[in-house]
């Protein structure tokens, strides 16, 4: 698959880049995408939720009433979960939600996500550029020139660029990241993907290394 390289004004430069079919042209594996996205979200969970069990709430352990003869259910103490202020039954406790996936599956998931975006014509390639200084207005104009004003945008760089990162920082719909940090969740969460030309060239190397 070939894509035209655009300039910062959104015009065709006359150059084209070849998208590797082993990355952008495979049959998407939706289950691999599901597992990778699930792991990404699970790994972000703090897992610090906690409620007090019966042995942790304050209160007397004195037996409230005699065992039999009251006509009601027996009760051992005021900490009984059935009473107001009592402990919680099977409440949440701190835990680690993270889990592992092998590298081959994660690589397949990212390739599948990129293939889905490519098939939906949601990928654009722009020539490498930089701003003289961080300027959000310039970045907004750049996005407007590409006619990508609607939906979340993922802007992928080969190397960190301070001016571009700071220019897009205040835009809620735009996420800027390096090619090495590209995750399946980021790809699927974005409606449009913008690659700088140099990142496309190094994409195959990144997939082979990771």
What is the element layout, followed by pairings?
Elements: E1 2-6, E2 12-18, H1 21-24, H2 30-44, H3 103-119, E3 123-126, H4 136-145, E4 153-157, H5 162-168, E5 174-178, H6 184-189, E6 192-196, H7 197-209
Parallel strand pairs: 1-3, 3-6, 4-5, 4-6
Antiparallel strand pairs: 1-2
The backbone outline, from C-alpha atoms, is elongated
> How many domains make up the 3D coordinates?
2
Order of helices and strands: EEHHHEHEHEHEH
Strand order of the largest sheet: 2-1-3-6-4-5
Mean pLDDT: 91
State the name of the first-level CATH class of the largest domain.
Alpha Beta
The CATH level-2 architecture of the largest domain is identified as 3-Layer(aba) Sandwich
* Number of DSSP E strands: 6
Amount of helix: 25-40%
Taken as a percent bin, the fraction of beta residues is 5-15%
Radius of gyration: 27 Å
Query: What would the CATH topology of the largest domain be?
Result: Ribosomal Protein L4, Chain: A
Sheet having the most strands: 6 strands, mixed
Overall SS class: alpha/beta
Number of helices: 7
Span from first to last CA?
A: 23 Å
**Could you name the ranges where pLDDT drops below 50 across 5 or more consecutive residues?**
none
CATH homologous superfamily assignment of the largest domain = Ribosomal protein L4/L1
